[in-house]
UniProtKB/TrEMBL annotation:
It holds the Pfam family UvrD_C. One of its GO terms (molecular function) is DNA binding. It comes from Mastigocoleus testarum BC008. This is ATP-dependent DNA helicase. GO terms for cellular component: cytosol; DNA helicase complex. Residues 9-342 form the UvrD-like helicase ATP-binding domain. It is an enzyme of class 5 (isomerase). Belongs to the helicase family. UvrD subfamily. Gene3D superfamilies: 1.10.10.160, P-loop containing nucleotide triphosphate hydrolases (3.40.50.300), PCRA, domain 4 (1.10.486.10). Residues 343-619 form the UvrD-like helicase C-terminal domain.
Amino acid sequence: MIATSDFLGHLNPSQRRAVEHHCGPLLVVAGAGSGKTRALTFRIANLILKHQVNPENILAVTFTNKAAREMKERIQKLFSEQLAMQYHSTKFDLLPEYEQTKLKSQVYKNTIKDLWCGTFHSLLSRILRFDIEKYQDEKGRQWKRNFSIFDESDAQSLVKEIVTKQLNLDDKKFNPRSVRYAISNAKNQGFSPKELERERPDYKGRTIAQVYGIYQDRLAENNALDFDDLILIPVRLFQQNEQVLKYWHHKFRHILVDEYQDTNRTQYELIRLLATNGETNKSLWDWDKRSAFVVGDADQSIYSFRMADFRILLEFQEDFGDGLPDEETQTMVKLEENYRSCENILQAANELIENNTQRIDKILKATRGSGEQIYAHKADDEIAEAEFAIHQIRTLERENPDINWGSFAILYRTNAQSRPFEDILVRQGIPYSVVGGLKFYDRKEIKDVLAYLRALANPADTVSLLRIINTPRRGIGKATVDNLVNAAQELGVNLWEILSDETSVNTLAGRSTKSVNKFAKMIGDWQTQIETVSVSEVLQAVLEGSGYIKDLKTQGTDEAEDRLQNVQELYNAALQFEEDSDDVSLQAFLASTALSSDLDNLKEGSEAVSLMTLHASKGLEFPVVFLVGLEQGLFPNYRSMNDPAALEEERRLCYVGITRAQERLFLSHARERRLYGSREPAMRSQFFDELPEELLTTQSRRRMERRSKSPAFAVNGVDSNQNWQVGERVLHKAFGIGEITHVFGGGKKISVAIKFSGLGQKIIDPQVAQLQRMN
Ligand SMILES: Nc1ncnc2c1ncn2[C@@H]1O[C@H](COP(=O)(O)OP(=O)(O)OP(=O)(O)O)[C@@H](O)[C@H]1O
Ligand SMILES: [Mg+2]
């Protein structure tokens, strides 16, 4: 057996208890940065190494796909290190590279490959690939294993079409977005359209239920599921079919869930069913052979708008343990040391969250030094706020060899706030990534190409067929398409059945007959290949055969060039997928693309400033964090102003934001802000007043540097962008040497005119241009 003592040494005693706990239920509750995720990861390793649990009997639920990947990599590394000691009696890092690779691939093959570790959505889509054909919905409808997954934008367009075209409803009264949200909520509460109608018998409720009903019909016709179905259908399937539940219950002996505070009722039900086999008699739960291990922090519950409910966390012991108070210590572990943040940051977070009434008090002690004060900044407007943050980033990056662009995160309340930051980052050539911006998989060209693949994998997917039938243009007009669709509806078959029948096409397609038949033949030919040919080869055939690439090339615009690159990137993704995955079927590839969440935009090891909403930042950590837009009505948002429970959720969100920071934290607000079009005066957020004054500073960077003896990161005291004088000679990166002829404005709004030899005079913002003085 492999010695486990080595890696358990990296844990404190409470973490160790959580990790070494073998069977039965266990709840780990602890504040931010206390090593909950780390404990969960090590626990998986320990189950396999010490208790010889077969990796395929472990189900680990993470909050993002990225977290799942990290967890697997971490375990792979731990195991490779153990094997290095066992086989070679030396440290892994000291082995030659080929030995390292060999060990890692051995660990991959024997362990990681079989581990079920991912988000609720990705794990359940896998389960459905096995068993969905055993499921029947309340109308007796069934789905096939090659189902498509409609992502949020697909779902939204479908709802829009039903609302505006099919039912001719006023889209002001029935905003498709809110209707989609209402449907999603209904699904998350487990309501069918009928049940929703019963729940909300008023006109609005009835109409939404009607849209919901049609929406479900359309999904079923397309052999498609939306994200909510990926959770809801397994729950119903398990409730319907004892055999199926028994199989998965038996398979997943050890269930682990990270971020349990953001679980909703349907997800909870799923965990309960899997852990207990649906048995309500607690004495029949064979806890001596299995475990349910969840970790979370009720203070970080921030997804109530997706029906998450942190009471589920608080009720864990009662639900899964036997509920006796003296048993408490056996089913719960508290972690009380924070390893992430400097003390000042942690203290600020702790004091802020104490303003919430709905919480359980807990201890969270710092293990690191006090660190620097938190910098509070008031800017004139949102542009000045962005300038401030990016100026700080530049300075810190320049002054500190230990940090790079990837050390910084800018966190905001709403997605729209990223724009001024992006503008300046682009102008200054600083690499950045917007986590949760327009997703790669949401871009038009990617959706087009994936629609081809979806139509191949699932011919019933009419939504995809309609997307590609005339993309790129192949002379199939709207009237023809309408004819074909109407005929399919009349006959109660799906569009592909009409398309793939030459006689029907000849009758219906008029002048486009030739083009439609050609299209159908092309799709039909590829459909026969998907079982035998790799995903990347299918993709290549589609890109070339469909004329998609050719069309982009002939357009010749910059935009088309961008789109070409994205399509190329999709091809790379397919190659990568073939290298990394166990199941390399086209369906598995499509599932992975549909489920790659916003948060996956966060590139591993990439040296880029990260921009994201506070919601997206959960579970992550960064050396330097900017929390921006701390203004009443923005953060906390206006909806929470008269709603105490909503305000508490905003405060938890602020707690999440503050606790992402390891070394430095900057809080900022603007005096006025242009948001949603108009320029409005803004008031500083009440959260500022809830932070201990002594931890905040508003002093200029210059003084701060002199005062702090050994700052974690020294900020450059001299702002070289100020005090420019007429007559000074300067060096500009692109234009070379020039002489300042004029200085406009002052302070942050300064700009200078410079005469460059041979180039004439140019007006330049010295903060942006990084001018250097020539002596
Ligand atoms: N025992 C330990 N010794 C040293 N560092 C630790 C220890 N436990 C955790 N850490 C480090 O502390 C940081 C926070 O850990 P982790 O992300 O697991 O916390 P968390 O409780 O999951 O936080 P969050 O609530 O934000 O999800 C990580 O960098 C982790 O590597
Ligand atoms: Mg965590």
